[in-house]
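Hello Y.,

Per our agreement to keep a running log of every chain we model this quarter, I'm adding this entry. I've kept the format consistent with earlier entries: sequence first, then predicted structure.
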Amino acid sequence: MGRLAVKEIGEIEDVEVLAILERAERQSAPKPAWYLVLAHSPEMAKAYAAYWDTTHRGGAVEHKTKELMRILVADLLDCAFCSQQRSTQALAEGLQEEEVQACTLPQMYHPDPKVRAALALARAMVQDAPPQECDRVYEELKQHYTPGEIVELGCFAAIAIGGVKLSRTLSVEH
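Predicted structure for the entry above:
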C-alpha cells in the first residue's frame, strides 16, 4: 500500500485530470495509478502531465530513445513500478524487450552510439557524475545531437529522475 491513498476515479471532478487519466490508460508510462496519487493536487497533476508529455512524447528526439532513458533511470533508482511500464508509443515504434534488457543493469549497452550517448546522460545525472565524466558525456552527446536536442534529453531525464524518486517515496503501486 502506498504512503498516500490512490484517489478513486469517482472522487475526481476536474475534467482535465480525468482526461489525463484517460490518456495515461491509453499511453502508459506513467500508469494511471501515478496520476491517481497526484490527483490529490489537481494543479500539480496537470502541470506534471503537461511537462511529461512535452519532454517524453514531444520534441525532436525519438520517443523510443527517451523511453529507454526512462527505463534505465527507473532501473538505476530501483523503482519496479516505473521500470516495468512500457510506453505504448515506444512499443508502436518497435521497442523490443531485448533492447530494453540490453540498456538496463547490468549491461547498460545499446548498439546505436546515438542512443548510448542519451543513456550515458541519464546515467550521469542519476549517479551525480563528477565534472570530468560529464565532460566526456557531453562530448559524446555533441557528436549525435544538436544543442536543442541535448537540452531536451536533459529536461526529460530530469523529470524522469524526479518522478521516479517521488514515486519511490510515495510507494506508488500498480
